[in-house]
Amino acid sequence: MQIQLDPLTSGRLEESLNDKPGSFKLFYDTEDCGCNGVLVLLIVNEPNTTDIVFQQQPFVFLCDRQQESLFDEVMTLKADEHYPSYKLTSDSTLFGSNIRVRDARQ
């Protein structure tokens, strides 16, 4: 898998790290939502044992092995210019248009 980023998105992700180490995890959060899950970008210290690293530059991106099949091979993450959220798309799918970053580092 690969995530393409534009300069605005890269800058916003860099700001989210707040000069601390961390990785971005694509994650469908199903806790308390009563649905198939809400896509979030978690900032984590390190991968869980079930996570796979699928991209390392310019940021480390990972996802849970069990959720890998929910994503496409090439995707684009784009920051909203006027709101602190992101849109994740591929050539065939809109994965989410109001994706938030949640810092889960300890």
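Second entry:
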Amino acid sequence: MSVPYHTLFLLEADPVFIFEIKRLDVQSADPADVYFWLRFDKATQALELLTFEAMSAADGEQRRQFSQGQLRFSAAGGTFTPAAGGPALALCPHTPPKLPAALEQALFAFFDKAESPA
């Protein structure tokens, strides 16, 4: 099943994509029901929901804090610093933020699995 969505941000490094989507089929006052940040591992094709904690912006830079790490980005580039340690990933923004076909298929499978009865 495909899920209607709009890609808000798409950032890429050699091993991963990090992106935010807005679901267009959900009406809710809770942003957590509508907006999703995800990380896609290119090698394993695994899609992980990032657990959002906070956001801010200053001097043209966007910042997002997740339990998995910190994301900082602008139109020129960004970094993701894992919470577990290790080197920060340098990210390149895609403009316009259009998901590649394999990534879109993983997104649809992710929501199919999440919405399937147990």
